[in-house]
Amino acid sequence: MRAFRMALAAVVLLAGAGACTSEAAQRVQLRIVASSELEGVRPLLAELSRDTGVDVTLDVRAGLDMLPPAGLDKSFDAAWLTTGAYQQLQLRGADRPLATPTMLSPVVIGVRPKAAAALRSAAGGAALTWADVADAAASGALRLAMADPSQGGSGLAALIGVATAAAGTGSALRPEDVTCDRLRGFFAGRSLTGPTFATLADDFVKRQDELDALVGEESALLKLNDSGQLKEKLELVYPADGIIQADYPLQLLRPEARVAYDKVIGWLMGAQGQKRLTETTLRRPFDPRVARDLRLQRLAGTTLFYPDQVEVVDKLLSDYADPRLSMPDHVFFVLDFSGSMRGERIAALRATFAGLSGADRSASGKFFRFYRGERFTVVRFGGTVLGEQTFTVENQGALDQLGGFIAADEFDDSTAVWSALDHADIAAAAAATDRPVAVVLMTDGLSNAGMGLDEFLARHDADPARKVVPTYAIRYGEADAAELDRAAKATGGRMVDANAVSLLDAFKEIRGCH
Question: Which of 32, 105, 136, 328 sits CB 3.0–4.6 Å from 217 for a disulfide?
Fold first, then answer.
C-alpha cells in the first residue's frame, strides 16, 4: 500500500509539472516600443499580462512619433504611438500596418489663473481660442512653454492645431495655408521648450513664476495639477477654434506577433481595459460607453482635421525649426504722405497700423498683428523724406508711439517714390546684420520728383549688400501698378493691390517671413 501511495504521488507531481510546463508554453510575448507619453501605462502591464497570458514589455523612447515608418525598430513586435497620423501620411498609397487607436486626449493649454483671467478679459467673455492665445503671446502678455513638435506627438498636435486655426478655412491644412507669417506672433510667446512633455513639465515647475502657460495633453496637464508641484493649479483652456486629439494607436510591426497583438488589443479595447486606461492615465476612453473620470466630463470641443498631405506637416516643422523665424524682423515702412493721401486715405492708413497694433480683434487680426521683438523703421515721404523713426515692439507703449508718429499731419505736394525707396533700401541693407530685413512701400500716386525707377534699380543692382533686401509694394489709389510690380519683383518681393482688397488686408498679405 505504501508503495502504491508513493507511486500515486509521483504521478500527481508529474501531472502538475506537466500542467505548469504546458501553461508556460502557452504564454507569449509582445515587445512594445512606445512614445514617451505612454510611460504612464506601465502600472497596467502586470494586470494586462495576467488577464491575457501575454507577457508585455514596454520600451519608452522620445521622438518615436516623428520617425518614418521604416525607422521603427523591427526588433519589437509593436509600436505604441501618441498619434500615428504623420507616419500614415508618409506611407501614402503603400500598405499600411495594422494600427488600433486605444484612447483619446485633446492637446490643450494649461494657463495660470491670473493669465487666464487676462485672456478672458481681452476676449470680452467669449470662449477662448488659439487666436486669443496668439494675440496675447504676440503682445508679450503670455509666456508659453511648448514641447518641440519635431520630437513628439503632443508638440506636433499643438502646432497643427494653432496653424489650422490660423488658416481659418475650417478644413485640413493645404500647402498654401502654411505661411509662417500667421504664426510669428504665437512663436514670439515661446519662452520654454523641450524634447518631450516630461522634460518640459519638469522645467516648467522649476520656472513656474516666470511662465504663464503650458501646452500639452489634457491628461498630462491634469496629472501635473494633481502632483502638488505647482503653486497654483493651471486652468485648462480648450480652444474654441479647434483642437487635435492624440489617439494612441498600437501598431503591429511584426506579423508573426499577430496572435499576441490581438489578445492585447482585445483587453485594451474591452470594457475593463478601457476603464483601467482612463483611471490610470486620465485619458478619455475610446469606447464612448465607458464612464469617464469626473475631470474629463467637459466636452473636448471642435476636433480639427489632421493634414492629409505629408508636405504640409513637413513645411510646418521646417518653419518651426528655421532659426530665422526665431529672430523678429526689421521692417522698413516707406509711407506716402503726399497731398493726395489727405482725408480718407490717411485715415485708412492710420486705422491699418492701429489694427496691426492690436485694435483689429478679428481672428485674422490676432494672428497677423505686430509681435513682441519686431523692429520698425517708418519713413514718411513726399518730395523728400518728411520724417523717420525706429520703434522696437516691447510693449503697448512702443506701439502707441508708432501710431503717434503716423498721426503727424505733415504732407507734401510732390511724390518722390523711388528716391524714398532708395533711401530706405540703403538703410535696410546696412541693418541686415542681426535679423531678417525687408522694405514695405505704400504709395497712392505716380512718382513726380526725385530719381526714376530705372535709376533706383540700377543703384540697387550695383550694391551687393542691397540684394538681400526684398521690397513689398502696396499699390493704393492711382499708383502705377506696372512700375510697383517691376520694382518689387526685381528686389525679390512682390506687389499687392490695395484697390482690390482693403488696405488692412493688403498689409496683412505682405506680413510674410522675409
Answer: 105
- Compute the CA torsion angle 322, 325, 327, 331 (nearest 10 deg): 140
What angle separates helix 453-462 from helix 481-490, to the nearest 10 degrees?
A: 0
Tens of pLDDT along 367-376?
A: 999 999 999 9
pTM recorded for the entire structure: 0.86
371 close to 356: Cβ distance less than 8 angstroms: no
Pairing of strands 249-252, 78-80: antiparallel
Rounded Cα distance, 98 and 258, in Å: 10
The phi, psi pair for 362, rounded to 5°, reads -70, 160
Do 122 and 356 touch, CB atoms closer than 8 A? no
pLDDT tens sequence across 381-417: 999 999 999 999 998 899 999 999 999 999 999 999 9
Residue type, 216: G
Lowest mean pLDDT across 174-183, 245-254, 490-499: 174-183
The three-state secondary structure class of 265 is helix
**Cα atoms in the Cβ-side hemisphere of radius 13 Å centred on 300:** 21
Residue type, 200: L
Q: How many CA atoms lie within 13 A of 430 on its CB side?
A: 7
End-to-end CA distance of the chain: 99
Burial of 3 (0-12, 13-18, 19+ CB in 10 A): exposed
List 442's β-bridge partners, or say none: 335, 474
Look at residues 356, 410, 357 and name the one whose alpha carbon lies nearest to residue 379.
410
Rounded Cα gap, residues 221 and 201, in angstroms: 9
Amino acid at 176: E
Residues 39 and 66 sit within 8 Å (Cβ to Cβ): no
What is the rounded distance in angstroms from the CA atom of residue 417 to the CA atom of residue 405? Answer: 20
